[in-house]
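Dear colleague,

Thank you for sharing your sequence with our group. We've completed the structure prediction you requested, and as agreed, I am returning the results in plain text so they can be pasted directly into your records. Please verify that the sequence below matches your submission; if there's any discrepancy, let me know and we will rerun it promptly.
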Amino acid sequence: MRHDRSSLFTLLLCCGLAAPSLAAGPDPYADARDEIDRVGTALFAWLIDSAEAVNAPSSSADPARLTPTAVVAGGAGTIDVGAIPVISAQDLAALLVPTYLDAVPVDDPWGAPYEYRLAADPQLALDPFAIRAGGPDQQLAASTAYVGGRVDAVDDDLVWLRGIFVRRFIASGLEARTTQDDLARIGAAMDSYIAFTFGVDARSLPAPASARRSPVGTGAIGGAFCPGVDFAMAAVTAAPTPYADVAADLVPLYLPWLPDADGWNTPYDLRWNPNAILSFAPLYAALRSAGADAQFDGDVYTGGTVAAPADDLVWQNGVFHRGLAPDPADAFPLLDRDIRRIDQAMVAYLTDLVGADAPLERRASAGASVYNVTNVPVIDTAALEIELVPFYLPCLPSTDRWGSAYEYRFNLANPLAPTVYVIRSPGSDGAFEGPVYRVGPVPAGEPDEDLVRADLFWVRNPEPAMLSSDDFERGDLSDWSAVTP
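Please find the predicted structure tokens below.
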């Protein structure tokens, strides 16, 4: 039976499917990446909501308890997606459209069908879904096994698995962003390894993202957690850790594939010392890219944003130390992440000081409609740094994402008081509104209002609409990054 073009488009639209492109755009690889990213984002959101609906394993489920579905078939660099069953675009649209996606693309930018794969029991699968595109030759490889890395020939497939393009094309101009995304993913996997191996309550590490989820979150937006603070790569290990040793710890439970080279195809410098978490100076990981010039700038880096593509990008111990300058629209997601990380450090410190879970049970402020920060004394940043760095934080930020000074309050004299600590940012205008706040979210579109967190709860927090970005995220950042709610 033949359909004319108008009837075919009507059929596609009625079933939640995206009409095929009539011709490839000027950058079909970039278009394919964008389409796959959108479907991947929707799949992650669907998986999270499905888990909540059936009380399935949570986003912090131990990945060792999940069933491997993408077989690592020849070492850490080889991935086989063949064990994940194929699902048609129409059946996938029935799951995702319209709640998570307007439409599921049927064909890739070269005019050949995308291949979608969904595990029979995605809640218990380490790799619940995969997506493949055949590339310019419009043919998928006969084998479902791939060596992770760059697409380097016109007949190479694009392959996406668990939030990562294990076979990828890096378009000109996107080298730095791809590199920063890699560092964020590898870093989140390292944090998850540490958390599951040594226990999240032992240190103020971010709570682990599930191995089933994309580790991309606000960590991939960039910037620097501690501008102006120096960090030496040798503080973790004197020399780079062999790729195979890092991959042995992270693949496949925490990453389906460990990226080996940056956006300019220069090998990453990986420093990995997980046993350092048992020491009194737990500097356990550092990652860096040499940038566009393929030359490292030295061993010691001052925290901040990079000024040129040739500058090195550096991630260390759960945070970006040297990152791309973030878009101003990302200030709230970054600030939300930063404050939560400081909050975790304070809770870990108090737990060690006065006993397990003691700070968590005293949230007298939670549920109040009004909060007065003067109930807790101000502490100098340098004094608080002595208590928290490096055991609970690699560094303590003195300024927020707008460059304004944080105000820290901490009742060191009486850590058993009803209220113990406060973290305040004055917002984009750099001026605190006053000591008394009505508890509730900061309305979207009002970035000049203060953000306030106290005793493990938000007094004034960003609305979810202020936390969206173009990464694998939605309103609840904890679902997408290695950050607790």
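Summary note from our side: The first helix runs from residue 5 to 14.

Kind regards,
the structure core
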